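Below: protein 1.
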Amino acid sequence: MAKARWTLKLSPVLVLIALAVPSSAFGQATRTWVSGVGDDVNPCSRTAPCKTFAGAISKTANGGEINCLDPGGFGGVTITKSLTIKCQYTEGGVLVAQTNAIVVNAAATDKVTLRGLDINGIGVGAPTSLVGVKVLSAARVTLIDNEIYRFKAGVSIQPTSAATRVLLVNNHIHDNDLGVFNGPGNNTITSTVATLRYNTIHDNFCGVATGAFGANGSTPTAANNCGTSAAGVIDKTAATRLWHNGIHDNSFGVYGRGANAVTDLGWNEITGNTTFGLRRLDGAITRTTTPVSNILSNAADDPPNGTIGISKYRRAR
């Protein structure tokens, strides 16, 4: 009886605690699902999937993962925590008009991965949608096996938090004003580093641009120096490392601006760019490795002005 009376006295306290804790604390899962026939009122489980990435993200725990259960268009999303979105086994569409598709604005310690997405700014002719993937803050962002097209900027890396590193592997980036931009978002960060491997970047006005002075706008304007700003308030190291990429048939292939803008080239094919294959302004540095990239059939090229050695390691027997 004493135990029962104690439980009854405690019950109102438990009710108050339950009311004080947000319901999301009980509803978040480490893996959630979206479906083309889902509904965002669902819990985003495999048997009751959500309709959009925006609907699923609030029900996904920090460090969790969103998967596509079947084909669909799942809309744009702003990512504010460690998160993985993977749809490589089906159509994971992100179709937007006149806005950003995916914005990464997480904590400086968070890690974000996007894999297997079809990110489409729609329309023909001059793009009106803003940025396909915009990186503002995170420790690490990884883009794998995505198609990104018909944006003012396909991928824009403009970090405002320290030590942001972005890795792009095996993406198809085309039909944008600017394919990939990498530059500091403010003058308080130490550096921004982007590594590109095995990507195909073609039929953009500018393929890959690196700007030590930052971008010329919140959404970089490619027609003005490939989105790079002139010397001003911002001047930080912006390093872009290009290995094994195909950068073809753009107006400008690889563009750098500012003495702290460093582009490393190795094993790339940079061909058929109609204004410049390689372009350097304001003391930008373009370094080649051994073996060097194939840089040919461009209208013009600013020759590389630096080298970086690649050493081979052989284990002793």
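Below: protein 2.
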Amino acid sequence: MAEFKDAYAITSAHEGGYVNDPLDRGGETYRGIARVHHPDWSGWQRIDAQRRKAGFPRSLSADRALQNSVRRFYKKAYWDRFDGDRIPDQAVANELYDTGVNMGVRRAVRFLQSSLNLLNRNQRDYQDLIVDGLFGSKTLATLEKLLKKDRGSDALLKMMNIQQGARYVEIMASDASQERFARGWIKRA
């Protein structure tokens, strides 16, 4: 079964530290947690208290309580929402988690569900799923069937990444200011 610590380590490398970029739709963020989307996250109190001290924002990485708060946040807000501990393939769990962090869990699960549907050989291997972005027992059972039939997750991961990349293209095509994030997004897809 997949482990949160492995997925967290990979995604954390993309999320960086403290950023307050006016062109980033997330606005002020710490390790990828956007204040505009998560204003009640307990870490903002610690960050606000340290803002007035010398060494800010570099000092934040040494704050163990803040780092623990970040890990707890990510596990609850992302990993647990798709039941990551039950995923039988670490690479699939890593992809769901990273895409969920970057684009939202429902979108990540929709990418998984639609990819599973596209890879079922016109429903000969298993029935199509409803693509609703909700990870439940049917999605898990279908994933297990694909992994057994394909003897791995390579095709599934590529199909999910194709959808992720297409979404990035849509974002940039509709708002040219987002092109500045293209290289970072390409690394994730």
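The chain has a mean pLDDT of 95.
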